[in-house]
């Protein structure tokens, strides 16, 4: 049989789009059942679409740590792209079934593989400096655009398909369609953090979402609307969906090997422990073959055994210069700040709050990390509490502690800004006993000067008297001028950073002279007139 290629008359559907064209669809089921199946597909596609969006936001935060900025960029790009996709879908109205089938196949493949592609780029070509000029961020924007265009094209085509099942007023059709869409988005939004991420991880979760997306699109187009498709178009879609599902299944089989290879590319070949805690991903490396032990939390270096002792001595000992029977350590899941506190035999009790319990378990169970922290968590004086640091301070009785040590993530990380706010420090001040001290790790002074002095301004705004100081890292990337900045604060008098002359448990890595000189160097960089950071107006963006 020879097919005719004569041009169609004006307004007629293209010949390859099927007998249904833009009129009533030929369904294998009753109209009520067909309409219900279309709405079910809307529900599934909406859930998958939101999972793709959240997946991109999660990776964006993983790349740079600034979740507000990254989420804003990803979501705004996607919303813009959805509008462009909706406009482009108007041209597919006459062949809605075939167009929707192609769009769902493409969306399943691109969305399902996006996590692996982003992680691969991050591992092998990524500049993890946190700027938007590197390869992972460019690919992230590209995925946001592509997925947004495809998601935006879904709704107009689904509107056309539901009208082909049974004609109804436009307002009623839009209400039904959006109701199914929003409920599906709710399910997808809840499934990502509570099911997919903790149980399957980002890579497998994205691949499974893509497979569900492909199956839903194939079932609707090749099942319900197969009568709208020409024979050739139908078989092209079948082959396309088989190829997409095959690629997703192959990627799922290889995801374990891929993840190990990518992790080695990021952290090196001596990864000794990987832990997804539900709060963050902890990766412990080194400890063998001369490599120093190092801990990474969500891709950011938490500590390196090469020079962590200098950092933790600078953090803890100046605050211990005075009464220190009762000590609160906020954060410090790895136990290194707690180790320094326990070097004082007259410490009676140490409360550790705000630490990730998964990291605490790792600090107890890994032999190398437990040896590094001096088995701090086995000391009877140490009491670990799984609690939010802010909530712990709010519930603590007044004058409960002589010393409060904050070993928290960098203030430039969006999730941590509340722990560097005026409200947080005001609450901490109430828990200090008379003459008590609070010490804050405020990030590097050289590279993040404004952030450092905003911490100082925020502490002073909460009624504390402060002394900033800094310590240079001797062996960690000396060419970059890496340093650590701290602020020592007290409610009664301006404290002076110092270390005692003798300490049990080994020699000191720092001297009193280094801390005194560090205070002078920090003061020379002071920025004046900075406003404090508050819960409703955080000010730690560079």
For the largest sheet, list the strands in their spatial order: 7-6-5-8-9-11-10
The poorly predicted ranges are: 1-21, 128-133, 475-481
Return Rg in Å: 29 Å
CATH class of the largest domain: Mainly Alpha
Mean pLDDT: 87
- Summed up, the domain count is 2
Shape: elongated
Number of H/I helices: 14
Organism: Streptomyces poonensis
Subcellular location: Cell membrane
Pfam families: Spermine_synth
Transmembrane segments: 36-62, 68-89, 96-119, 139-162, 174-197, 203-225, 237-256
Provide a descriptive summary of the structure in words:
The chain has 14 helices and eleven strands. It has a seven-stranded mixed β-sheet with strand order 7-6-5-8-9-11-10. Strands 1-2-3-4 form a four-stranded antiparallel β-sheet, sandwiched between helices. Helix 2 crosses helix 4 (135-165), helix 3 (96-125) packs parallel to helix 6 (231-267) and helix 5 crosses helix 6 (231-267). It has helices at residues 31-64, 67-89, 96-125, 135-165, 170-224, 231-267, 308-316, 336-341, 357-365, 367-372, 389-395, 422-431, 449-461, 512-523, and strands at residues 271-276, 281-285, 294-297, 300-304, 326-331, 349-353, 382-385, 401-407, 432-443, 465-472, 483-490. It has two domains: 21-267, Growth Hormone, Chain: A, CATH 1.20.1250; 305-523, Rossmann fold, CATH 3.40.50. With 542 residues, the chain is an alpha/beta fold. InterPro entries: MFS_trans_sf, PABS, SAM-dependent_MTases_sf, Spermi_synthase.
């Amino acid at each position: 049989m020879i097919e005719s290629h004569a041009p169609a008359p004006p307004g007629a559907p293209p010949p390859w789009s099927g007998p249904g064209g833009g009129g009533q669809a030929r369904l294998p089921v009753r109209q009520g059942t067909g309409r219900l199946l279309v709405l079910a597909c809307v529900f599934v596609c909406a859930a998958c679409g939101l999972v793709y969006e959240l997946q991109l936001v999660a990776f964006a935060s993983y790349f740079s740590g600034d979740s507000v900025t990254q989420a804003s960029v990803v979501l705004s790009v996607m919303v813009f792209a959805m509008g462009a996709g909706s406009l482009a879908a108007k041209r597919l109205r006459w062949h809605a079934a075939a167009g929707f089938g192609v769009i769902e196949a493409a969306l399943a493949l691109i969305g399902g593989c996006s996590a692996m592609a982003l992680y691969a780029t991050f591992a092998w070509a990524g500049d993890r400096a946190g700027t938007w000029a590197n390869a992972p961020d460019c690919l992230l924007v590209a995925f946001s655009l592509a997925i947004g265009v495809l998601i935006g094209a879904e709704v107009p085509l689904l509107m056309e398909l539901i009208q082909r099942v049974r004609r109804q007023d436009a307002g009623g059709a839009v209400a039904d369609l959006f109701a199914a869409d929003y409920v599906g988005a709710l399910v997808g939004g809840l499934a990502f953090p509570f099911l997919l991420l903790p149980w399957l991880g980002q890579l497998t979760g994205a691949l499974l979402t893509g497979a569900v997306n492909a199956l839903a699109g194939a079932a609707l187009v090749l099942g319900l609307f197969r009568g709208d498709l020409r024979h050739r178009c139908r078989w092209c879609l079948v082959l396309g969906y088989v190829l997409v599902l095959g690629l997703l299944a192959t990627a799922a089989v290889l995801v374990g090997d891929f993840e190990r290879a990518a992790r080695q590319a990021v952290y090196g070949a001596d990864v000794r422990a990987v832990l997804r805690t539900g709060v963050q991903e902890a990766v412990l490396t080194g400890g063998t073959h001369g490599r120093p032990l190092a801990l990474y939390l969500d891709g950011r270096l938490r500590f390196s055994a090469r020079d962590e002792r200098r950092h933790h001595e600078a953090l803890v000992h100046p605050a211990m210069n005075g009464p220190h029977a009762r000590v609160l350590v906020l954060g410090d899941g790895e136990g290194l700040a707690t180790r320094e506190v326990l070097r004082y035999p007259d410490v009676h009790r140490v409360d550790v709050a705000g630490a990730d319990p998964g990291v605490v378990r790792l600090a107890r169970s890994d032999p190398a990390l437990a040896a590094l922290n001096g088995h701090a968590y086995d000391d009877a004086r140490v009491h670990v509490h799984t609690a939010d640091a802010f909530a712990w301070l709010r519930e603590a009785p007044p004058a409960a502690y002589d010393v409060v040590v904050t070993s928290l993530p960098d203030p430039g990380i969006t999730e941590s800004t509340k722990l560097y706010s005026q409200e947080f420090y005001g609450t901490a001040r109430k828990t200090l006993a008379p003459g008590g001290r609070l010490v804050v790790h405020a990030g590097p002074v050289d590279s993040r000067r404004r952030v450092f002095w905003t911490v100082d301004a925020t502490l002073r705004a909460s009624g504390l008297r402060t002394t900033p100081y800094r310590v240079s890292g001797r062996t960690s990337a000396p060419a970059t001028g890496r340093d650590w900045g701290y602020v020592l604060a007290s409610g009664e008098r301006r404290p002076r950073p110092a270390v005692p002359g003798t300490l049990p448990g080994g020699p000191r890595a720092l001297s009193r002279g280094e801390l005194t000189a560090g205070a002078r160097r920090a003061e020379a960089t002071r920025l004046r007139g900075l406003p404090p950071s508050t819960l409703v107006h955080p000010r730690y963006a560079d």
